[in-house]
Amino acid sequence: MSGLVCAIRTGDEDLVKKMLKILVRKEPGEETVAVRNDMILGRAGRPLGRLTARPVDSADGSLTIAFCGRLYNAESLRPHLKPKPRDKSEGSVVLSLYKMKGRKCVHYMDGEFSFVMRDKEGFFAARDPLGVKQLYYARTDDKWLFASELKAFPKTYMSVSEFPPGCYWDSEAGARRYFKLPDEPAKQLSLQEASELVRVLVTEAVHKRLDAVGEVGAFLTGSVESCIVAAVAHRKNKQLKTFSVGLENTNDGSTARKVADWLGTDHQHREIKVQDILDALQQIIYQLESFDAPLVRRAVADYFAAQFASDTVAVLLSGGAADELFGGYAYLRPMFSEKLSSEIRSITSGLHRTQLQRWDRMTNVHGVEGRVPFADRRLVHAAFHLPPSMKVSDEGRSKWVLRRAFSTMLPAWVVDRPDPDDTNFVGIQAALMDYAHTVFTDEDIHSQKENEQQGLPQIRSKDELLYYQVWSGKFPMEYVPLVGRTHF
User: Is residue 49 pLDDT above 70, yes or no?
Assistant: First the structure.
């Protein structure tokens, strides 16, 4: 449970407090509001050690920040900052860094974050490179309202926009992009050299995300990337806890349990019933803020895994973003090189509205900090320098360089297991689709397609129609353009 709200030149402290309460979901937590001249900053969250659930002031009082997320290089930055951060929070580190570097501070920040900062008479806001942490805003003339989730905005605020990832806003300079996916020619590396590079960067990305106040766990789905994350984390932390979720009376989670046994992790598996899914579905869609079918289907397992894990861990790692970076989806395999590169760029650019949003929201609702090693800035840069043939091999094997990179760390039945078919639904996903078939007919889908001509979103399946009906009952239609759509 964490989030921020910021009102600039609105003078409505009560509004900020009401918005913060919507972001608070699991106790213990706190909501704190700081009024600084014409700016009202609010934070909702669970204080843990150096993490703070309140806006932070600089020592001289000239700056105030509402910060969400985590800086993985905060401790390495701290000794070099002048003035020294006034406390142990990451927000204080950002304030000191901003004092030294101004708006260039974002280039020195390694992490997953969104924040809004008061700077004298102006403000500075930024979001992490890939958009792991969410941020939205509404603007009328010189009045601004920020929030980390759409649901926090009053229904009267129809004109809400997404603060784009990898960007900052400075009162003097305006909007600027500080990060973009590399577009240089692919580096001439052999598969062995590329594998070594990927292995080093993935390992570093996982290790830096193991630092936490409280225990760290990993969500094992059985995918090669989730197994890699768990294997790397377990080598560093032998007390690692792993979690999996599956539908009762199915094979859901069987691979995850087999991998956990092989690694020797402290593993817990939870079986859920179809009724559990249906009972939680409205809450899942409301928190996810999406009706996209592939997202909702995957969010169900995330939701129950985070709920399950929240009793014992403070942080949960996932293998998210690997499918986008390394060509893991079935529909990518037949593509020619140029088309494959273009599509990987497109789906990676959209991660902030799809898989990253899904994971952040489903962990956040249960008070767990979700972390995504594959969204690491250095790893993303390296992945985009590799040729597409190292992502999808000439034989059509997905995530090829990633599999080769960890072929000696994991058994062959993990790294060489057949690629999944995105259209072969089993377990939780199949149960959702089967239920939707009992609710809607083919005619319902046909009627919805006719409505697309009136500006309604494209609905691709019966279960997506189910999710859309839930979503549209909770959010204004004007928010449809802010809903991310997957490409498969």
Answer: no
